[in-house]
Amino acid sequence: MSIATPAAVPTAAVITELTSIAERIARMAGQLILEGRRSPVEVASTKSSAVDVVTAMDTASEKLLREMLAELRPLDGILGEEEGSSAGSSGITWVIDPIDGTVNYLYGIPNYAVSVAAVSGPPDPATWTVLAGCVHAPALGATYTGGAGLGAFRDGLAVRANAPQPLAMSLLGTGFGYARNRRVVQAEVIARLLPQVRDIRRLGAAALDLCAVAEGGLDLYFERGLKPWDLAAGALIATEAGASVVGLRSDRPGENLTIAGPREGVETLRGLLLELAADRDAPDVVV
Ligand code: IPD
Questions:
Q1: CA 131 to CA 85: how far, in whole Å?
Q2: pTM for this prediction
């Protein structure tokens, strides 16, 4: 029987270098998409449903990120929202969201971002180790970075998640999926949570929701349906800022459910979400 050798933990210098590459390419893609908003933004295609949209800038931003990674890190793999995965040989994969918050981008709401993370191991939130990440929101003028074991920062200044609050005093962020049968359950869950919290926010970009937890702009956040590129960089930044980022039935966040905030608050919210079985979908609704 062969025993798998754990991947070597990169040094702080390597993590710092990966973080600086993440920031550099996220900023370049951010500049591209910000300039792209000067012309009318239109839907180029749709994905899982008619409201799950792709703009020409999603495609252009991912192309730019991929070109820069090919130049700077030719041996690494890439997993991107629009073009899928390309394998590498180094054991590191870049997990990229060229525009997180595409619907905000389409409507000119400034809460959108480029999210870039370097992970070691297969690019699967159930097993990966996120080494470095950057969430850059060009229209907000905010750049969040994190390196494993090295802290979380907004524009170079350290950020910290809020101390635990009673649920009744907690500002809770969330998001909704694009499929109707998922939204049926999400509406039910929100209806049960709203009377129990300070208030609810739906800001429209998961990576920025996680960064909001990291800097105390939200006390708690949860969402069902996050893809690897929605959460890789933001989850690292939130964790490095002292938050706990977990799933519903696993300590790993993922598509099934992601919950973030101070540990005690996360456990209280997790208990409620378990009671509500928040990781289910309704049967398909015929429109
Ligand atoms: C979406 C946003 C949104 C979240 C959705 C994501 P996209 O990402 O993060 O806030 O609710 O689950 O898919 O499609 O804009 O990259």
A1: 18
A2: 0.95
